[in-house]
Structures are given as C-alpha cells and as structure tokens.
Amino acid sequence: MTKSKSYHLNSTKIAEATKEWLAKRGVTTSQIAELVIFLQKEYFPDLTMEECEQYVEAVLSKREVQNAVLTGIQLDMLAEEGKLLSPLQEVIENDEGLYGCDEILALSIVNVYGSIGFTNFGYVDKLKPGILKKLNDKEDAACHTFLDDIVGAIAASASSRLAHRKQAEREGAMGPPLD
Question: Which one of 5, 20, 90, 113 has the fewest beta carbons within 10 angstroms of its own beta carbon?
C-alpha cells in the first residue's frame, strides 16, 4: 500500500465520522450524557441533561478523542468480521479480561482531562451503568471490546471538564475556556 501524496487532513470529515460511527454502533450523545449525570449528580444536583450533552459534545470535538473513537470502533468491527489475525482475533472477539489495550486506548481520551477523569473512568468501567451495560453484554453478535471503554472515557472526561468548570464558576474566576 502506498501513501497518497495528495492526502490532507479533513477535520470536519473526521468529526462527522466520529458521530456517525458512534450512532451506527448504537451510542447517542444523550446516553453518554446520562453517564455524566450518574457521575456528577451527587456534586451538582441541579445538573441538566442539556448541560451534560454540551460537555459531551465538547469532549467529542477534541481530535485525540475522535482518533480514539475511530480506532476503537474499527478494531471492534474488524473483530466482528473475523478479519484480525489469531490470536488477536479471539482476544478482542471475546473481550479477554487480561487484554488491557482497550482500556489504554480509552485512557488516551481521559488523559486530556486530568486525574478526576481517571477516577471517574475507573468507577464507570467497574459499575457499567446505562449504555455501558448494554455495550458490555456479550450475548449478541456485536463486539464492543473497545467501544464500552471509549464511551466510559468520554463520559468520564465530560464529567471532569464539568467539575473543573463548575469549580471555576464557584470561585468566580472563569478565565479562558478549558478544552
């Protein structure tokens, strides 16, 4: 395979593909926002779904996040199609417990948003609330070895972003927006 000499990164195309691929895999922004509410309702009882969706959208606008989403979904799809080489095919297809690359890819998302994101990710990864329970269900033909962790990481990152913003609001020191 040769690299295209005319390749130019198209940020809009990547952002659109990220949202489309999530939707095709059965994940909506609202479902991720529900995880944000789950993670933050104790700290911010007046939190709205609309507000959480805005934080999810902000996380999804980051290139590192988009790259992780597209990579993880593609690996899940290839595993579903049986297109990976053995033993990696079986490892991903069965979401092998000792295979940690799915969590590592998800942590690349969380890494953008700091330590609160790491703890939130570990929490939702363990409990598997909401859409994560469905994605982690191994009863159907779909493979979501990477996607469940990616969705958890997006929610954890949105929660972290929210917590930092709310703290800044409390302090009355809303400086330049944090990405």
Answer: 5
